Model the fold of this input.
Amino acid sequence: MFPSYEVPLDEFRHLVSERAVTGETVLLNMGPQHPSTHGVLRLLLELDGETVINCIPDIGFLHTGVEKNMESKRYEQAEVMTDRLDYMNTIGNNLPYCLAIEKLGELDVPPRAQAIRVILVELQRLSSHLVWLGTHALDLAAMSVFLYCFREREMIIDIMEMCSGQRMMTTFFRPGGLWRDVPDEFEISVRRFLRYLPGRISQYESMLTKNPIFLDRTKNIGVISGEDAIRWGLTGPALRGSGPKYDIRKAYPYSGYEQYEFEVPTASEGDVYARYQVHMAEMHQSIRIIQQALDKLPIGPVRSNNRKFVPPPRAEIGVSMEALIHHFKLWTEGFSLPKGATYLPVESPRGELGVYLESNGSNKPQRVHYRAPSFAAIQALPILAKGHQVADLIAIIGSIDIVLGDSDR
Amino acid sequence: MGVEQKLGNLGVVTFKLEQVVNWSRANAMWPMLFGLACCAVEMMAAQASDYDLSRFGMELMRASPRQSDLMIVAGRVTRKMAPVVRQLYDQMPDPKWVIAMGDCASCGGVFNNYAIVQGVDEVVPVDVYVAGCPPRPEALIHGIITLHEKVRGEKLKDWA
Amino acid sequence: MTTIDKVTAHLQERFQAQPCDLCGDFSLLIGREHIVEAARLLRDEFGFDMLADITASDYWPEGCSVPPISPRFHVVYNFSSLEHITRLGLRVPVNDDDPQVHTVEGVYACANWFEREIWDMFGIRFEGHSDLRRLLMPRDWEGHPLRKDFPLGYEEPQFTFNFDDIARRKPRAEKGQG
Done:
């Protein structure tokens, strides 16, 4: 029924050293199903004893064909598929897609919607970093951190469920704003969570930051210099751990980020420990941003009034002919964007997540492409892993924070 | 411990062999760590605090298929991954069960295209389907309890 | 003059880059013979140190039976400068009868996998690439999925009226099968 999955050596002979062919070094398959690969990543390791001489990643085991599928759906229908790409940052995948549509269609977004977008995206960043910390620590045998982090994540997921009804795949952001306004308990819950979280993060830091075992396993492992990181297209905490201070929220601000004061943490050593420090500092900055956004939360509508893109409220359909026609057109045909192409990057917890949206004037996209930060990170994995031992390779894979749904699309 | 205190010295207790074996299989089922995509995160959440799978006997997820009884296919199975799923299923020793967790594993889910196998039951025989995208941890637990009931109802002649 | 204007003027003058009105942000068309030189120039002289993305787009009208339009593909390069905080997009038109572009792997190391993905999805070859194999699809897959003439692979949903029909055709694994 399905052919067995064997690859002859000739296909990747040019990637392994000569010693593999003679049998001096061992070719080991760290297969798609592995507890520490954070998804279905296959690594072909060339080992000399325990040392990794070469590491050839093989991705595609989660290739979902989303880009092709989105070309056959209308813009609003295609948005549902975007949540499922980078599944740790679900609501953060909706954001660049909606921003790209708003840019091409010249749609305005009310300030309240922008502020709530920022709050939810930063909450999702916290959730993603918590899961990252839990799984990274689990790989390095600190099991209790995993349980604590998931307990905190449950609180964030409860807030998401309160807004949209769904725990993970919310599709809450729509072109023009949000799907609906957040309920009254939203602000109280978020504030309660923000009072509770900094103490918890300090707890995790006290468990790991000065822990001699953790330091031994992460210091001077997987070092990459700043220039090499830029050359290999690394972005996000993996890049900032090596020096360059590049954050899309500061460089190309979107959705009102320019109003909020926050720092971009960096480290200079470029090893696994530096990336860990950057992640932890980013969590504190996210808390800061959410506090500011909540304090300044404006009152007003949460979706644009442009009836060519946004359906009218149900009450209006009974009294206005135009509202009925707009409703009919949006439900049967969907909206069309003018011809053009745009690329819109946002800062996901993994790095630069960009949407390249091309429209040919119809109601279906001509081309949607997601620039995935994990794609570049896995490409750089052989550079990070050369010369280290297999156990260190596990620490490196954890530190670059890859999600295979993101890289395979 | 509790039984003797409540009922006193029972002497000899008889059960049907089926009941004892099914009870032991259901209460100590070890899942294999087979999270593929988004559902894997909800499976991890079900395993972690708040919704604890250890109370159902699934204390840890074994990474090795040779040591596990239950394969929870959590996530979308692509055509590239399908032979791997089959190979892992074949490596599991009998008795084994499969839970198809989520819409993508049950029927292809949101993705109806060239790359996704439309339901993992094209590749491995499935015992319980859990719907949801992703299913809540409570839904997964409901699926696991359904599987336990199914296991407890198994007859001698159907045993692997 | 901003960096973008300087760069655009330089590219137009040296490589005859044409502006493309309908292309929005990515409005500079450049010939495929010039792309490597242009990339090197952008990296060394103008400080575009990161190649954010290479992608491609197929312009053949879907479901069309006439021969593909020319140029059928546009390969879109997305350069980003960290110090000047600017982005630049370049498009390289590629025909269907000879879908080849020279690789920019020598200039930007991260182009390796981006170009492999385009080969896998669109069938555009990159000359001089060190390792042009399929990346996302299985190694023995035939066809290039993101081309417009590749079918979506849509499976008909199983309703009550066609349940038995589809159940007969759909492969199904049974318990106890080897």
Notes: The interface with chain A takes residues 22-26, 49-53, 55, 57-59, 76, 78, 82, 85, 87, 89, 108-110, 112-113, 117, 130-131, 133-140, 145-146, 150, 152-153, 171, 173 of chain C (CB under 8 Å). The longest helix of chain C spans residues 3-15. The radius of gyration of chain C is 21 Å.
